[in-house]
Prior knowledge:
The complex is a heterodimer.
Chain A: E1 4-7, E2 10-13, E3 18-25, E4 31-37, E5 44-50, E6 53-57, E7 64-70, E8 73-79, E9 87-94, E10 106-107, E11 111-115
Parallel strand pairs in A: 2-11
Antiparallel strand pairs in A: 1-3, 3-8, 4-5, 4-9, 5-6, 7-8, 9-10, 9-11
Chain B: E1 4-5, E2 10-14, E3 19-25, E4 32-38, E5 45-51, E6 56-59, E7 62-67, E8 72-77, E9 86-93, E10 102-103, E11 107-112
Parallel strand pairs in B: 2-11
Antiparallel strand pairs in B: 1-3, 3-8, 4-5, 4-9, 6-7, 7-8, 9-10, 9-11
Amino acid sequence: ETGVTQTPRHLVMGMTNKKSLKCEQHLGHNAMYWYKQSAKKPLELMFVYNFKEQTENNSVPSRFSPECPNSSHLFLHLHTLQPEDSALYLCASSPGLAMLSTDTQYFGPGTRLTVL
Amino acid sequence: DQQVKQNSPSLSVQEGRISILNCDYTNSMFDYFLWYKKYPAEGPTFLISISSIKDKNEDGRFTVFLNKSAKHLSLHIVPSQPGDSAVYFCAARGNTNAGKSTFGDGTTLTVKP
Lengths: 116, 113
C-alpha cells in the first residue's frame, strides 16, 4: 500500500470511551502531523513529529495524546472526549519539516470522529 | 485572528470556462504558498505552490498568481473540467514555522458540464 493511510475511517464513541486513531505512511518521510478539521473551519494543526520527536503541540487539550513509535507510524489516543471534538482528523507526512524546502505535505483520507 | 482567508465558500463555473479562486493572508512572514484540492472522503492533495520570490507559477491548466503587496494570491484553472469539482484550500507558511502550514477555510468549486 502506498501513501498515507488512516484507520479507522469512521469512529463513533461515547464521552467515557478510550479509542485510538492510527496513521501510517509508506513514503519514507520523517515528519508526521495531526490536523483537525471541524465543520466550516480551516484545518487546525494539532501536533508535529520529526524523527519520532514531538516538535509542536498547538495547545491541544490533554484528552488528545499523540504517540509516534517510529517515523512511519503515528497514533492519536483519545479519552474522555467532548461532543465538540467531533471532527475530521487528518494525518499528514512530509519528507522533512518543510522549513526552507519546497516539501509538501501528503495527507491521509482522515478519520471522521463523532463523539456522543 | 485568521491569517489565511478564502472569502468565497463556493464557486460555480461552466465547463470550459475559467475558475478563479482567491486567497488573502495577513502575515507578512509567510513566504511560501500552496493550494490543495480535496475530494469527498479523501485527504487534501497538493496541487501547486509558489514561493514569494515569484509572482506566477504555472502547471498545465493551473496557474497561481501572487501579489505580495496586496497579500493576495489566486488560483486560475483554465479550462475548467467537471473533474475539478472539489474543495480547494489555500495554505501559507514561513521559514520560521517548522512544517506548519496555515490553511484557509476552503472554497468549494463546482464545474457544471
